[in-house]
Design goal:
3 domains, 20 helices, 8-stranded mixed sheet, Rossmann fold
């Protein structure tokens, strides 16, 4: 019989005392997410029995491994509900359209096959076989009519898909208004039923582990954790839910081609937020937004995305050697994902105005996906600077700081978006611990810290000329900017060990019932 968490007794795992079982949930494959890895390692070291569960594609590898004393594993997650049902059925909006892109492609290919066959048959008919030639001519004519009909229906399907993906299309706006009015925060069931895929794939694993605390990272795992908490309550068990909000969901960029996606995510989060026993987040600005948005009884605890310096497992690789450059070459570095919103392309397009400066992108994830990185290289070739652009794979999260330290400056080129304005990202703290002059766009929170702490230069987001100015200034003043990190206590506060202590305190408080439960109703 399991000990009730909070009682004086402790359970034991592998010969060590544990304070309770924690199931951490994340909607990715773990390896590229340094925050959840740090959480798992540090909470297990603090005496919690930690299982970290991530997800992979149906064809992905099912892995189990250890992160310190925590167990990590991946669940294969099919996403059939993520395909909009509307894309697989006929529509009154365009009744001649095929019921799906696969059907349209199939019909086109079938018609092409018939055409190829008819050409072959005509080429092999002897000149004197007039009857056969007449039959082939008739078949050609019929096939031509069929191909025109297929072309018409396929073109209607293409028009229908464009209309479905247009957020300003009247029918899309009407559907969005209808479901939000009719179902409120439950409207995600109709707007994005693919959210059910996470619950279907993960629920039995969470229940089987019988946790005392569920630590749900981001909004999609919030719903999975909240429902697991409710199922446990129906069995007479009090499971605590800690929601770790990494982003401000209403401030996310809409998903291209899915006009109802963002509204669904907002509704999903709002339905489940009140079930969290405690909320933690990544920055003070986001903590304020979460409290006001969800009517939380107190401000969420802030657990910054600082590096885990104490967990370094060995020497880091050599950044300059990986770039193929020497110690005297100027090198600016960017670490993280490549996307249009992060404006990483600016770093490449500015290189013609920064002669001799190299740009490194530590951006190829463990999955090996590099389409976005290859686009940077393509643009670099067009500009004649490809020899100064270096696209590199991620390194283990505990080696990032040492790896980046070989650069001369670091860049955070974010554009103005709601989540960027309040962000204090992993890379920001990694750059700081690498003691790099920081070149950041004027997104509010990071720009304020850089200016206040005199860590580098701030430029106008998206302004290439101002970016070039900032890079030159950062390189010219690199020693002065590095000296800012000597300020007593600055880097000590930006250390994961300090942040882990905050998270451990949250766990301890929810177990003891010291954190007030959320009170706002699910349909507010």
């Amino acid at each position: 019989m399991r000990t009730v968490l909070g009682a004086p007794e402790t359970r034991r795992k592998s010969g060590r005392a544990v304070r309770g079982r924690v199931v951490m949930l994340v909607d990715n494959a773990i390896e590229g997410d340094s925050r959840v890895q740090k959480q798992a390692r540090s909470m297990a070291a603090a005496g919690w029995d930690v299982s970290l569960i991530g997800v992979t594609s149906p064809g992905g590898r099912r892995l189990r491994w250890e992160i310190g004393e925590a167990e990590a594993w991946l669940v294969r997650l099919p996403r059939p509900l993520a395909v909009p049902a509307a894309s697989m059925r006929l529509s009154l909006r365009r009744p001649l359209a095929y019921g799906g892109a696969a059907i349209a492609d199939l019909r086109r290919q079938q018609a092409a096959a018939r055409t190829v066959d008819l050409r072959h048959r005509r080429a092999t008919v002897a000149p004197g076989e007039a009857g056969q030639r007449l039959r082939l001519a008739s078949a050609y004519a019929m096939n031509g009519l069929t191909r025109r009909w297929i072309h018409l229906r396929a073109a209607e399907h293409d028009r229908l898909e464009r209309a479905r993906q247009n957020p300003e299309a009247p029918l899309n706006r009407w559907q969005l208004h209808f479901w939000r009015t009719l179902r409120g925060n439950r409207s995600w069931r109709n707007l994005d039923p693919g959210l059910w895929d996470f619950e279907i794939g993960l629920a039995r694993h969470v229940d089987r582990l019988d946790p005392d605390i569920i630590h749900a990272n981001d909004h999609r795992m919030l719903g999975v954790g909240a429902r697991a908490k409710m199922r446990a309550a129906s069995r007479g068990r009090d499971v605590k839910l800690v929601w770790d909000a990494h982003e401000y969901v209403p401030g996310l960029a809409p998903l291209a081609g899915a006009p109802k996606w963002l509204a669904a995510q907002v509704a999903y989060e709002r339905e489940h937020a009140h079930l969290a026993d405690a909320v933690v987040t990544v920055s003070p600005g986001l903590a304020d937004l979460l409290r006001s948005t969800h009517g939380l009884p107190e401000k969420p605890a802030v657990v910054l995305n600082c590096p885990e310096l104490s967990a370094a497992t060995g020497p880091a690789p050599d950044l300059r050697a990986d770039c193929g450059i020497g110690p005297d070459d100027d090198l600016v570095v960017y670490c993280g994902g490549i996307s249009e919103a992060r404006n990483t392309l600016l770093m490449v397009e500015a290189l013609p105005d920064l002669p001799g400066v190299h740009a490194a992108f530590v951006s190829v994830p463990p999955s090996g996906r590099r389409a976005a990185a290859d686009q940077l290289l393509t643009r670099a070739r067009e500009l004649g600077v490809v020899d100064r652009v270096h696209v590199l794979p991620y390194v283990p999260h505990d080696q990032v700081v040492a790896y980046l330290a070989a650069a001369d400056a670091a860049v955070s080129p974010l554009l103005h978006l709601p989540n960027h304005e309040i962000a204090l990202s992993n890379k920001f703290f990694e750059y700081a611990h690498a003691r790099l002059p920081l070149v950041t766009s004027d997104v509010r929170t990071m720009a304020d810290v850089v200016r206040t702490q005199r860590m580098g230069e701030v430029y106008r987001a998206g302004d290439q000329a101002d970016y070039v100015r900032a890079v030159r200034s950062a390189l010219d003043g690199r020693e002065r900017f590095r000296a800012a990190y000597d300020r007593p206590g600055l880097l000590d506060d930006w250390n994961w060990d300090r942040q882990a202590a905050v998270l451990d305190k949250v766990y301890t408080q929810v177990v003891a019932g010291a954190v007030p439960a959320q009170t706002r109703g699910s349909d507010d």
